[in-house]
Write a structure and sequence with these properties.
Chain A: It is an enzyme of class 2 (transferase). The complex is a heterodimer of chains A (479) and B (101). Helix content of chain A is 39%, strand content 12%. In chain A, helix 6 packs parallel to helix 7 and helix 10 crosses helix 14. Chain B is mainly alpha-helical and 101 residues long. Chain B contains five helices and no strands. In chain B, helix 1 runs parallel beside helix 3. Chain B is flat and about 60 Å long. The chains are: A alpha/beta (479), B mainly alpha (101).
Chain lengths: 479, 101
């Protein structure tokens, strides 16, 4: 940092002090009263902070009001603890660090061939491509940047189906896939393709024999997600890869929730196409990638027409800072994988033990054995799901995937597992990650237990269960 | 040249420097992560007996510490533009006393 002047350093240090002062007010879970101005600021702390933080810190010193954050009519004592890592993960500071130069000085278009601005951006994008390839045991040439895993899934499913449409008319997927896969398949059905939606067993895993029986001579593609976004179960990808290779069918897997969390090697697992997402592995939002095998070669029809970037498969300028961020996130994920895994498993056990020791009648949705520890989907019996979520407003969790959390319908994934409607309505997904702390987990445990017990005390159903009445035997009369 | 293993004092100083850096992060989760990771990393390295491996681990730690993570926003406040050709040319022109019309 030779170019940094003394003035900048001094201003910077003052800012740090101000931020620290503000931050002391921001963490309200300790129960300390924090200045109202600061918590208002805290509600927006993702915005550039150096504009007003200094004044906020000076104004706020003497105020000792109870802290509140008000948003969408919900009043909270502070920012909730974040346990929704499947929806998105915070950006690692090392990732942000790698990205920043490409937001400021190195703003060249990576496809510009005539000047240094373009060359340095191109170098950065290629380096990121290599880092992503490294994480999954692929070659850098097999990685195509997209806007996210949704676009990658679209390219994989529609792209393969369209390219081989003259000979192959059949696609196989599962009922518990992400919406973008299911929707792409629906689109193919409208075009006249045949799609089989494989059911899953009660543990959320597919039946391999059923898969074998479903493959036809005209099957173009099998698409099974690696780690489920809602229930966290890990599908038997290696076995599926083997079956697909034997039957000469392309195998696509949506690894948005798996990459960077569990070891993946595309050659060992015989994966032909794989979707990746940047923001699920502590990278930035707005970037993803698709892995496309070169030997044996997988070909797809492009979804977007344009300048022919990314070997014509995804036209449009690659977002250099985001690509660099995703590359850095992949490299860090690779280095930190063992450490993260250990930490997340510890949190998983801590939470589960804490909750199960105090609350009965809870069910973990999906296999407990074949599962990513960072995702814990639990149904609480005799509790109304929406009330529980509202009661847990100090914990940022969701009832399922972020895409469908707006609707009151029970999750289609849980229904596919055969979870009964009442239990599907009360499911909550707790997500742990690299930056989740034990203190947060303990706090979440306490809040969950308190809330469940409070709701059950109010519930006539719970009272009946305590009296030994079998709820299923009751004939409810209609009015 | 054989690598020299860091002395316990040096290792301790590096560890303390990590904790000091951690405290600079305004975000609670990141601050706690840096602390936890530093503790775990140093605990893992405690058992290293081989001097070369210990020296490598020490060097890696130092490199990690020197990366200015928390300084990220300094970059936004204004980075050096002195290497722009524009300035270089202006300097040349002024020094040479000839400004092309």
């Amino acid at each position: 940092m030779a170019g940094r002047t003394l003035l900048q350093r001094t201003v910077g240090r003052a800012l740090l002090q101000a931020l620290k002062a503000r931050n002391a007010a921001e963490i309200t879970t300790t129960g300390k009263a924090a200045p109202a101005v600061c918590s208002e600021m805290a509600a927006m702390w993702n915005l550039p902070r150096h504009h007003s933080s200094a004044s906020a810190a000076t104004v706020a010193v003497d105020e000792q009001e109870a802290p509140t954050v008000m948003m969408k009519g919900v009043k909270m004592p502070g920012r909730p603890l974040y346990l929704d890592m499947q929806a998105t993960s915070p950006v690692d500071p090392r990732v942000l660090d790698a990205m920043l130069p490409y937001f400021t000085d190195q703003y060249g278009n990576p496809h510009s061939r005539t000047h240094i601005y373009g060359w340095e951006s191109e170098d950065a994008v290629e380096r990121a491509r290599g880092q992503i390839a490294n994480l999954i045991g692929a070659n850098a040439k097999e990685i195509i940047f997209t806007s996210g895993a949704t676009e990658a899934n679209n390219i994989a499913i529609k792209g393969v189906a369209h390219f081989y449409k003259d000979k192959k008319k059949h696609v196989i997927t599962t009922q518990t896939e992400h919406k973008c896969v299911l929707d792409s398949c629906r689109h193919l059905q409208q075009e006249g393709f045949d799609v089989t939606y494989l059911p899953v067993k009660t543990d959320g895993l597919i039946d391999l024999e059923e898969l074998k029986a479903t493959i036809r001579p005209d099957t173009a593609l099998v698409s099974v997600m690696y780690v489920n976004n809602e229930i966290g179960v890990i599908q038997p990808i290696k076995e599926i890869g083997e079956i697909c290779r034997q039957h000469k069918v392309f195998f696509h897997t949506d690894a948005a929730q798996a990459a960077g969390k569990i070891p993946i090697n595309v050659d060992d697992l015989k994966i032909d196409l794989m979707s990746l997402s940047g923001h699920k592995l502590y990278g930035p939002k707005g970037i993803g990638a698709i892995y496309m095998r070169r030997r044996p070669r997988v070909r797809v029809e492009a979804q977007m027409s344009g300048g022919g970037q990314e070997r014509g498969i995804r036209s449009g300028t690659v977002a250099t800072p985001l690509a660099v961020g995703m590359g850095a996130a992949c490299e860090i994920a690779m280095q930190e994988m063992a450490n993260d895994e250990k930490h997340i498993l510890e949190l998983h056990k801590r939470f589960l033990e804490g909750v199960t020791s105090q609350v009965q009648g809870l069910v973990i949705n999906g296999s407990t054995e074949h599962r990513y520890a960072g995702n814990l989907n639990i149904s609480f019996a005799y509790v109304e799901g929406e009330s529980l979520l509202m009661g847990l407003k100090e914990v940022a969790v969701s009832s399922g995937s972020a895409c469908t959390s707006a609707s009151l319908e029970p999750s289609y994934v849980l229904r596919a597992l055969g979870v009964e409607e009442d239990m599907a309505h009360t499911s909550i997904r707790f997500g742990f990650g690299r930056f989740t702390t034990k203190e947060e987990v303990d706090r979440a445990t306490k809040l969950t237990v308190d809330q469940v017990q409070k709701l059950r005390q109010m519930s006539p159903l719970w009272e009946m269960v305590q009296e030994g009445i079998d709820l299923k035997s009751i004939q409810w009369s209609q009015h | 040249m054989a690598a020299v293993a860091p002395s316990p004092v040096e290792a301790k100083a590096l560890f303390k420097a990590f904790l000091r850096e951690a405290r600079k992060f305004p975000n609670y989760n990141i601050r706690e992560y840096v602390k936890r990771r530093a503790k775990e990393g140093f605990r893992e390295c405690q058992s290293i007996k081989d001097p070369a491996a210990a020296a490598a681990a020490f060097a890696k730690g130092k490199e990690q510490l020197e990366r200015p993570h928390h300084d990220s926003f300094f970059l936004l406040m204004g980075s050096s533009s002195e290497d722009l050709v524009l300035f270089q040319c202006n300097k040349l022109n002024v020094q040479g006393g000839s400004v092309s019309a």
